[in-house]
Structure formats: structure tokens, C-alpha cells
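From the shared-data thread, chain only:
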Amino acid sequence: MSKAVILLSGGMDSAACLALAADEGHECYALSFDYGQRHNAELDAARNVAASFDVKAHRVLSMDLGELGGSALTDKDIDVPISSSEQIPVTYVPARNTVFLSFALGWAEVLDADFIYIGVNAVDYSGYPDCRPKYIDAFQSLADLALKRSVEGRPIQIRAPLIEMTKANIVHCGLKLGVDFTQTVSCYQADEAGLACGQCDACRLRSLGFTAAGTDDPTRYRADAGNK
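Structure, as C-alpha cells:
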């Protein structure tokens, strides 16, 4: 059985990505990051999702990207926007996916895994530059040069199976593969219980996805949440 490392944030996209990797028959290893984000609810969600798919191992690595600042997701002095008209909003975390994929490469090589799965999406997303197909292609080129396995003719493949899906497609895919979306947390400013604000871009895109999919939104909202 081939091995795969899955980047698991605890959100709906990464949960669907894990489900796809499991459905494709891989032995799954989940990798999450405590990177100084605003709340830990998504890490609790990641643990629950990983357990529900009985992954072989789940690692949570700690680093503080907030030391660099520059993002509303790591810097408490920058407000999370309710809606954003910016092409690249302040919720973008500089170099986050590059950092995460680099650690995933390292673990994949240690595990002798053939695949890395990342749940980036370039259709219904917030405009982040590191969610685009050409970014994934570029990182694949880096991986093909950087690793012992690659030099030996056994490159690790970066897979982004959701990259051309709409949020509705992701909902349908996840439900078909047994994802319990009540376990997932997408909100940029969820409380410690994982209850969503109902107003940020992540909440808005998630809600629109369930509506477009023609299914009830299972998101757990705070009592004062807007746009539920």
C-alpha cells in the first residue's frame, strides 16, 4: 500500500482531501500546524477528522508565523475583515503553504511516502497566490530537485485534487466519501468551542457552498453570528 501525507487544517477542504486520499487506497498520515493562528479550534477539528478516518499517524507541528506578522490570521492587531474587496486579502498568511509543504516533503521522505495531498482550491477561494495551479506546479518542480528520493528516480507527487472544484463540488465529494462536516472548522475567527462567526470570507464561502450543493449547512454558529 502506498503512503500519503495529507495536510490537514481542520477545515472542510482538507477533510475532503483526506477522504479522497483514503478512498484512493493510501495509508494516510495527517500533518497539521500550530502556527500562531487566532484560535486552536481548527486543530481540535483536525484531530477529530483524523481520528474519524483512522489515519496511521497525525502530527501537529508547532511554529509561530505570527512572529513575522503581516496577516489577520496571526496578528491580533489586524482585524479579520467581514468582507474583502482586495485581490489578496489581509487573511493571506505570507509563505504559509510553502512552509507547510516543505515540512510535508520532509516527513514524506522520512516515511518513504509517494504522495502529498493539499486541499488548496482556485475556484471558490479568497485570492491567495499559493492556492493556484501554477504554484503547485512550481512546488512540484522544487520537490523534484530537492529530495534524495527524486535524485534516485522516485519523486514524491504533490496532489491538489480540489484545485478546480467549486465549494459545492467539494461538499458533494466529502459527503459521498463520509466526511462529517460538523467536525470541521473553517471560520477565521471561531471561538474556542469552534463556533463560527458567520461573517468572514471563510464562513461566507462555506455557506454558499452548502447552499449551492442543495444541502443543509451543518456549521455550528455562535448565537450572535451574522448571515447564518
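The domain at 3-213 is CATH 3.40.50.620 (Rossmann fold).
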